[in-house]
């Protein structure tokens, strides 16, 4: 099979039986169930024809398996939320450290380090800004966010350069007065 041809994932028989459970939960509405599961209506009709009787015969086992899968998914979701909270905390700590260094000794920050930090921080912050002020349409949002991203990064670089100049001027005026 060539690289450009679409590869289809085969559903296991157990997966098809879980599809039948979803179909039953939707009152045997094949179009709705197919849409929810991301498969075509004709595929759902074919599965219904082939697997409905088997599902009815093994309904309790399919229900138990579906419940177990749901429980595992909830645990995974909780784990992902914990990881997300830890990452946010780490990110905020790094922002605070950068802010302290900018206030105390802006000359100690190397441009290379700053660019590396901004390449990680700016997309994250821009995403948060876009979500907080999501007044743009989805099509316009990516262009708007990218334009704002460039401005955001440039403003940070300008502030750092200004802080370095101010500190250098302060040091040179201190040296000339002594």
Keywords:
0% strand, rod-shaped, 2 domains, mainly alpha, 6 helices, 178 residues, 82% helix
Total domains, how many? Answer: 2
The description of the largest β-sheet is: none
Tally of DSSP β-strands: 0
Task: Return the average pLDDT rounded to an integer.
Answer: 75
In N-to-C order, the SSE pattern is: HHHHHH
Number of helical runs?
6
Shape type: rod-shaped
- Helix % is over 70%
Report the radius of gyration as a whole number of Å. 28 Å
Classification by helices and strands? mainly alpha
Unreliable stretches, pLDDT < 50, 5 or more residues?
A: 1-8, 134-142
* β-sheet strand percentage: under 5%
What is the straight-line distance between the termini?
80 Å
